[in-house]
UniProtKB/TrEMBL annotation:
Residues 216-396 form the Wadjet protein JetD C-terminal domain. It holds the Pfam family JetD_C. It comes from the Bacteria. Residues 8-191 form the DUF3322 domain. This is DUF3322 and DUF2220 domain-containing protein.
Length: 397
C-alpha cells in the first residue's frame, strides 16, 4: 500500500544516507547511537486498520521480519484508537551499532576498511582528526592507499621543501607514479600538516606542476620552441635559428627584437617567413599560459595566429589576459570566408563552453558568437594550416 513504507524503501533511504557519508561523519563525531541509528516508520491510522486491515497485517509481518538481522530491533509504542482501542505498533527500526547497520546494508567490509583507515591516519597524525571528520568521502575513496599516503606525509613533515625531483624522494614502497596519481589528496593532507613556511601559497592548482612548486620539489620545466626570423640574430645561437629552451632560460633572453608571432601549428611555425627583429613561437596550445612569466614579452608587439574555431579564440583571449596589447592575425571573417574550401568541423563535444570570452575585441567576439551559434554551418572550424601561405605573406606585407 502506498502510504506504508516498504522494507526496500527503508533500505534505500538508509543507503542514500550511507552514500552521502551521513553515518560515517556521525560515527566519527562519536554521537550517541540512539540519536541517529534508527529510522522512523509511518504512523498507522485507525482508518487503515478498519478498511485496509489485511494490507496492514501484511505490512506488519514484513516489518517484523527485520528483527531476524542481528542487532536490529523494532521500537514499538502503544497507540490508542477510538474504535479499536489500544494497539502495540512498531514506530521505528533501531540498529544497535554501526556493525548491525552496515551488515544490514551489505557494507560491513567497506565500513571495516574505512574504520581501519581512520585509525591509521589519526594514530600517526592525531592533528588530522578534524580533517577526517570533514573528509569522510576522501578517507573512504583512498582506503587502499593510506599506508603509502601516510609515508609520503611523514617524509614531507621530516623533510619540508626537499628541493629534489619526485623520483628522488627516498620513501620505501612509494614510487613516482603513486605520488603523481595522488597529488590532489596529498595536497589536502600536506596543507594540514606542514608549517606555513613550507608551503608556497602562490601555487594552489595542480596544473603546471603546481604540486611541485607548492611543496618545494623540482620538475621538468615547460619547453619553448621558437625560430629566429631575422638572420642577424643567428650568430647569438651559434648559427642556429630553430631553438628549444626551458621556460626559465627563455624568460632570461636579451634579444633586440620587437616583434613576436605566436602560432599553434608546428609546420606553420617552421614555414613562417623571415621578418626583421622578430621571432615566431609555436606548438604551445593551452600551454601558452607559460608565457605569462616572460617579462620581456611586455615590450614586444605580439601577434597570435590560431585556428578559427572556439578554442582558437579561447587561447587568444587567454593570451591577451596576460598581454593586453596582443593582436590577432588571420582570425577574422574575411579570412574565414576566403578559405571556404578548407572548412572543417570542430567536435561538438570538445567545443569551448563559454558563451563569451572576456578578452576579445568587438569583431573577434562577434566571430566567436557566429561560430557558437552555427551561422554558417554547425561547429565550423578553419584550421590555420588551411590558410594559404600567400595570405600570410600578404598580411605581413
Amino acid at each position: 500500500m502506498a502510504e506504508l513504507t516498504s522494507l526496500s524503501q527503508i533500505r534505500n533511504k538508509l543507503l542514500k544516507r550511507w552514500e552521502q557519508y551521513h553515518f560515517h561523519q556521525l560515527a566519527l563525531m562519536e554521537q550517541p547511537h540512539e540519536q541517529w541509528l534508527q529510522v522512523k516508520l509511518p504512523k498507522i491510522t485507525g482508518k487503515q486498520l478498519l478498511h485496509e486491515y489485511q494490507d496492514v497485517i501484511e505490512w506488519l509481518d514484513n516489518v517484523a521480519d527485520i528483527e531476524r538481522h542481528h542487532g536490529v530491533q523494532l521500537v514499538k509504542q502503544q497507540v490508542s484508537f477510538t474504535k479499536l482501542g489500544k494497539q502495540n505498533l512498531p514506530v521505528a527500526i533501531r540498529f544497535a551499532d554501526m556493525e548491525s547497520l552496515t551488515r544490514y546494508l551489505g557494507k560491513w567490509q567497506q565500513w571495516q576498511g574505512f574504520h581501519l583507515a581512520k585509525q591509521q591516519i589519526v594514530s600517526q597524525f592525531p592533528q588530522l582528526m578534524p580533517w577526517v571528520v570533514g573528509s569522510a568521502a576522501l578517507v573512504d575513496k583512498h582506503q587502499a592507499s593510506w599506508p603509502n599516503l601516510l609515508k609520503v606525509c611523514e617524509y614531507f613533515t621530516q623533510h619540508p621543501r626537499p628541493n629534489c625531483y619526485i623520483r628522488q624522494l627516498d620513501i620505501t614502497g612509494v614510487d613516482t607514479k603513486f605520488i603523481e596519481k595522488h597529488k590532489l589528496i596529498l595536497k589536502l593532507l600536506l596543507d594540514q600538516l606542514l608549517d606555513d613556511e613550507a608551503i608556497d601559497q602562490r601555487f594552489d592548482k595542480m596544473a603546471e606542476h603546481g604540486f611541485e612548486q607548492r611543496f618545494g620539489l623540482k620538475f621538468d620545466p615547460p619547453m619553448i620552441r621558437f625560430r629566429l626570423l631575422d638572420p642577424q640574430f643567428w650568430h647569438e645561437f651559434a648559427g642556429m635559428s630553430d631553438i628549444t629552451l626551458p621556460l626559465e632560460q627563455f624568460a632570461q633572453l636579451d634579444l633586440m627584437i620587437d616583434q613576436v608571432y605566436i602560432t599553434e601549428n608546428k609546420i606553420n611555425g617552421l614555414a613562417f617567413p623571415k621578418a626583421r627583429n622578430a621571432i615566431v613561437i609555436f606548438g604551445l596550445g593551452y600551454g601558452i599560459q607559460s608565457l605569462k612569466s616572460v617579462p620581456w614579452l611586455t615590450q614586444c608587439q605580439i601577434r597570435y595566429w590560431g585556428d578559427i574555431d572556439t578554442h582558437g579564440f579561447a587561447i587568444l583571449s587567454q593570451l591577451r589576459s596576460y598581454f593586453p596589447h596582443t593582436q590577432s592575425m588571420l582570425m577574422d571573417e574575411a579570412t574565414l570566408l576566403a578559405c571556404k574550401g578548407g572548412w572543417g568541423t570542430e567536435k561538438a563535444s570538445k567545443a569551448h563552453k563559454a558563451e563569451r570570452l572576456n578578452c576579445l575585441t568587438a569583431s573577434e567576439a562577434q566571430l566567436y558568437h557566429d561560430l557558437k551559434t552555427h551561422r554558417w554551418q554547425p561547429n565550423l572550424r578553419l584550421e590555420q594550416e588551411q590558410v594559404p601561405m600567400h595570405r600570410l605573406e600578404a598580411w605581413l606585407g
